[in-house]
Amino acid sequence: MFRRRKTSTLEHKRDFHGSTLPAPHNDMRTFFSLSQLVLSAGHLRPPPVQRHSKIAYFEVEVLDTQSKKQICVVDKIPPSSTLLDVKHKFHKVCPQWSPSRVGLRLERNGPYLKDSVNIKSLAASSIITLYFTDMGQQVSWTTVFLTEYIGPLLIYLLFYLRLSSIYDAKESARSLRHPVVHLACACHCLHYVRCLLETLFVHKISEGHTPLKNMIKGCAFYWGFTSWIAYYINHPLYSPPSLGNKQVTFAALVFLMCEAGNHFINVAVVHQSQSGKLTSFPSPSINPFTWLFTLVSCPNYTYEIGSWISFTVMTQTLPVGVFAFLMAIQMAQWARKKHQQYLKRCIACRWRKAAMIPFIL
Questions:
Q1: pLDDT in the model for residue 209
Q2: Which of these, 117, 133, 132, lies nearest to 77 by C-alpha position?
Q3: How far from chain centre, in Å, is Cα 202?
Q4: Which residues pair with 73 in a beta bridge?
Q5: What would the pLDDT profile of 224-248 be if each residue is shown by its tens digit?
Q6: How many CB atoms lie within 10 A of CB 65?
Q7: What is the largest CA-CA distance in the chain?
Q8: How confident is the model at residue 38 (pLDDT cuts 50, 70, 90)?
Q9: Nearest Cα to 223, choosing from 143, 152, 161, 166?
Q10: Are the beta carbons of 358 and 295 closer than 8 angstroms?
């Protein structure tokens, strides 16, 4: 009765594809977009291979200077280490020697190496041989300077008080002091108070150490001469300068000028060193006391000697003159050494030949 309607092949295909599978046109559009994205990104490169840098460590063989026997081997030392780092590692292996007592040299009779030397600069291979010397008990430079300056300050005051254990009590009570005795005490104390304050607040003192015997030598020199000087000036039988108050006044003014000049020079040198302006010779500033830089390399020594010469004239005593003479010899050596260091920095400054005394030394 009823005839079953035959669906055509075209309709069957349309129903089949339309209801079950997506259109191939959409697949082509997706594939085309993906291809454009890949082409716009460029060539695909593999991620870079991370290479780990190898650090070459050094080994330091420490030998005894006298016997050439091996004391220890300090290993795993990075190239950026300094000699001070080596000394600290050496102290861990040999605790009986603190880093300040350790003296290291490349050769048995060579100079001692500084703590700031980079270990890489000493290496000819991965193994470095150094010679060890026990430097003995060490003290810091700050302790040395403070001890050398505090002693003269206190010793002079003890003689100034004219203790009965030093002078005869009857002579001390009977004789009147000349004004130059009081002035000399004030100038002497001013000098060493200035040195103490500059040591604490002005000078940039090295963090290194020096043998205890060097401090003992320095203290014996300063303390011994101070005792000799103070004994003569504060003696009840001391006679004032031959030219009287004119000589004393003139010498006292020169002394004060030299002390002020010494202070301003020290401040100027430290300021130029900290600011990085000290590339060759120190340069003068608007301060008139620093104009001496145009003539000499170390005017602080010039002012120091001027202070002691004027103190000699003011007191007119032999001990002060001997002390000033010996100080001049020592400071001339220091000035020449520092002058040579300045010349190495500035070859074009060879014309400046004076180190401490203008046109002479």
A1: 83
A2: 117
A3: 13
A4: 61
A5: 999 999 999 999 999 999 999 999 9
A6: 16
A7: 168
A8: low
A9: 152
A10: yes
Torsion of CA 200, 202, 203, 207, to 10 degrees: 50
Rounded CA-CA distance 284/41 in Å is 65
Q: Is the dihedral of CA 269, 272, 275, 276 positive or negative?
A: negative
Query: Which pLDDT tens digit goes with each residue over 207-222?
Result: 778 889 999 999 999 9
CA distance 274 to 8: 102
What pLDDT score was predicted for residue 273? 79
Q: Which residue has the higher pLDDT, 265 or 57?
A: 265
77's CB contacts (< 8 A; 6+ apart) are: 57, 58, 59, 60, 85, 86, 89, 119
What are the tokens at 359? 């046109």
* Burial per residue of 228-244, b for 16 or more beta-carbon CB atoms within 10 angstroms, e otherwise: bbbbbbbbbebebbeee
Q: Comparing C-alpha atoms, which of 75, 53, 72, 63 is closest to residue 126?
A: 75
CA distance 89 to 60: 10
Cβ pair 289, 265 in contact under 8 A? yes
CB 85 within 8 A of CB 62: no
- Contact yes or no for 352/292 (Cβ under 8 A): no
Please give the DSSP secondary-structure letter assigned to residue 55. P
In Å, how far from its chain's centre is CA 174? 53
Contact 77, 85 (CB under 8 A): yes
**DSSP one-letter code for 207:** S
**3-state DSSP call for residue 251?**
helix
The residue written with tokens 């060579």 in the block is 110
Alpha helices in the chain (DSSP H): 9-19, 24-41, 83-93, 141-160, 169-174, 179-201, 212-233, 245-275, 299-315, 318-345
